[in-house]
Amino acid sequence: MLKMVMLLSQVTFVIMVSLVLWSGGRARRGGRRGHHYSSRSRYRPGSFGVWHPSGQCDVSQQSYEVYDHTFVFIMDGKHTGEELDPVRFLNHHRCAGRLTNESIIEEGKKAVQFFEEGYGLDLSNVTDSDFINGQVPVEGGRLIFKPFIVDLSDNYRLISETDRYSGKLHKDVPVSDAGWMLSVEEPLDVNGTLFTGRLGLPDTFIFYADYIFQAHFRKTIIHYESRYPSVDIGGRFQFFEAALFSDEYGEGYTTSIFEVEPVTRNKQGREVLTFPKRKTN
Ligand SMILES: *[C@@H]1O[C@H](CO)[C@@H](O)[C@H](O)[C@H]1NC(C)=O
Ligand SMILES: *[C@@H]1O[C@H](CO)[C@@H](O)[C@H](O)[C@H]1NC(C)=O
Ligand SMILES: *[C@@H]1O[C@H](CO)[C@@H](O)[C@H](O)[C@H]1NC(C)=O
Predict the structure, then answer these.
(1) Residue with CA nearest ligand 3 atom 3
(2) Is the CB of 86 within 6 Å of ligand 1?
(3) What is the tally of structural domains in the chain?
(4) Phi, psi of 98 (to 5 degrees)
(5) Of 66, 107, 109, 174, which has the highest C-beta tally within 10 A?
(6) Ligand 1: which residue has its CA nearest to atom 4?
(7) 140: CA distance to ligand 2 center in Å?
(8) From ligand 1's centre to the CA of 102, what distance in Å?
(9) Using an 8 Å Cβ cutoff, are 25 and 37 in contact?
């Protein structure tokens, strides 16, 4: 009996202490200036959404169609400007299934056709050997056509991807980025099927290239084409966008911002690739 009474009083003591601590906590929270919430206000509509009894908050009250697939790339290395490494360039194309120089040249000719039609340019001065090793002045030297591969020092890599149902994180999956590009040396006005306007200075580029990466033993090749020239903003940022083409994911779109710190040449890039749901007929 005595034991029973002691146990009961211990239980009562614990309950009382809990009550005191709880109400004290409430008083402190309620008393903070500028904050008008108490534990009860979680059940009331908030000014920017609906509060659910569970404490979760649906701020958008809107549903979005999910992408079939997305990828996020980052860059956080140094910009050396070294983007003509023939050994890595040939290896990139081998990974893309272009096993001979002839098949690389064939792909390069598609790049020329894309630049000519999409941007209304004359690239007739580009010859077969230029597709692997060249740096060709075109349009009377106002543009330079060249093969490129993004330098390893850029630390270009895939960090995450999503499908319709879930997401995956990646740890440092290198992205190989190579193909052909035009860089603007002198401003010129163009009129093409994709772009009509001025290709200005400084640092305006147009790309026709592929991303290749291998995550979890699966190789992914995504072709991309600039639908709009990549342009400099303020001598420090580069805005890039492109249409994406993939056998696996269909057609998509990518945009990115790259920052190159002018003195250190440290490079920061964030890029998101999105593939909408494929239309079914
Ligand atoms: C392909 O082109 C590269 C670079 O110009 C050259 O070094 C290599 O010998 C060529 N390969 C063949 C099989 O012609
Ligand atoms: C092609 O190259 C020649 C010789 O270098 C040059 O005179 C001519 O302007 C170039 N044509 C174009 C369209 O750039
Ligand atoms: C571009 O070319 C198209 C087709 O030739 C023409 O209709 C249009 O006026 C041109 N635009 C400019 C800005 O020159």
Answers:
(1) 191
(2) yes
(3) 2
(4) -95, 95
(5) 107
(6) 132
(7) 5
(8) 10
(9) no
* 51, 152: one domain: no
CA distance 245 to 243: 7
Q: Would the pTM count as exceeding 0.85?
A: no
114 and 16 assigned to the same domain:
no
Strand pairing partners for 191?
196
Look at residue 281 and tell me if it is in a domain.
Answer: no
Instruction: Answer positive or negative: Cα dihedral of 54, 58, 64, 68.
Output: negative
Contact yes or no for 241/259 (Cβ under 8 A): no
Does 172 map to a domain? yes
Take atom 2 of ligand 1 and give the residue whose Cα is closest: 101
Residue with tokens 């999910």: 66
| Tokens, residue 230 | 């990549």
Answer whether 208's CB lies under 8 Å from 196's CB. no
Two tokens, residue 96: 């893309």
pLDDT digits (tens, 9 = 90+) for 195-244: 999 999 999 999 999 999 999 889 999 999 999 999 999 989 999 999 99
Determine the pLDDT at residue 79: 87
Ligand 2 pocket, residue 125 CB under 6 Å: yes
Calpha distance 93→103 (Å, rounded):
9
